[in-house]
């Protein structure tokens, strides 16, 4: 496969897979979703998503506990990974890869899938893993580092565990975390550690179905304005080498 490279573009991507429940069973990609983001404005400029039919349909669940979940019927008529491999390669190869826990999961699954069809896997020009980045800089303010918890903390809705929805949620979570940390770094004595107690939202535990309170860093009405602020800041940091400037500025926001 021969494609142009786009070393200064960011592609957020996410995979949905089966959950191996038998000895020797492997992960199989059931859905791929990606958005290409402008590094200057963080605006979505391209998107792609597809269900994927595994070679063994039995690895896909007959039913899903989620209303819009992936079932065996949904992937039965979907293209195989080999059918969409060229498109996925073109989206990923030579771009900055971004996502939540992609180093340990999504990147590995992509390489496995390409190896299985005997083709070279795409290579990133850099990787931004929001799990590692936010674990180090934002901490467990949301209770844990799961995307669902981080999204609930900022009032961004419920994680759907569908690829395109999840990558968009990932981008919004990253913007919000960066904004909070930037504000705290601007006035550390007044704000650091104090934004958490300014307001409350109600969340429901999946295990006990009991209602519990969780701290919100600020009211939902102010989130849109703050999101625009961080986009402006990242835009100003853009230079000739987008990867270097983006990572450098991300680290400055998250100190």
From TrEMBL:
What Gene3D superfamilies does the database record attribute to this sequence? Ribonuclease H-like superfamily/Ribonuclease H
Q: Which residues form the Exonuclease domain?
A: 9-183
Q: Which domain of life is it from?
A: Eukaryota
InterPro entries assigned: Ribonucl_H, RNaseH-like_sf, RNaseH_sf
Q: Which PANTHER family match?
A: DNA POLYMERASE III SUBUNIT EPSILON (PTHR30231), PROTEIN NEN4 (PTHR30231:SF26)
Any idea what this protein is called? Exonuclease domain-containing protein
Q: Which organism is it from?
A: Brassica napus (Rape)
């Amino acid at each position: 496969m021969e494609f142009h490279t786009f070393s200064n573009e960011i592609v957020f991507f996410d995979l949905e897979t089966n959950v191996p429940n038998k000895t020797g069973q492997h992960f199989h990609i059931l859905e791929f979703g990606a958005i290409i983001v402008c590094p200057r404005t963080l605006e979505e400029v391209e998107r792609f998503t597809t269900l994927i039919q595994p070679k063994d349909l039995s690895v896909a669940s007959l039913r899903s506990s989620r209303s819009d979940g992936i079932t065996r019927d949904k992937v039965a008529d979907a293209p195989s990974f080999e059918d969409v491999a060229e498109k996925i390669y073109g989206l990923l190869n030579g771009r900055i890869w971004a996502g939540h826990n992609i180093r340990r999961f999504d990147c590995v699954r992509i390489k496995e899938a390409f190896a299985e069809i005997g083709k070279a896997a795409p290579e990133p020009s850099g990787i931004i893993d929001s799990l590692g980045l936010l674990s180090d800089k934002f901490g467990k303010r949301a209770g844990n580092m799961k995307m669902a918890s981080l999204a609930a903390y900022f009032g961004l809705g419920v994680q759907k565990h569908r690829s395109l929805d999840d990558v968009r949620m990932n981008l919004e979570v990253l913007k919000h975390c960066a904004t909070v940390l930037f504000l705290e770094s601007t006035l550390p004595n007044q704000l650091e550690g104090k934004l958490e107690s300014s307001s409350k939202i109600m969340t429901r535990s999946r295990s006990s179905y009991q209602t519990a309170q969780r701290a919100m860093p600020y009211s939902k009405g102010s989130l849109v304005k703050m999101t625009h602020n961080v986009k402006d800041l990242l835009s100003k940091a853009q230079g000739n080498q987008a990867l270097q400037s983006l990572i450098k500025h991300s680290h400055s926001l998250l100190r």
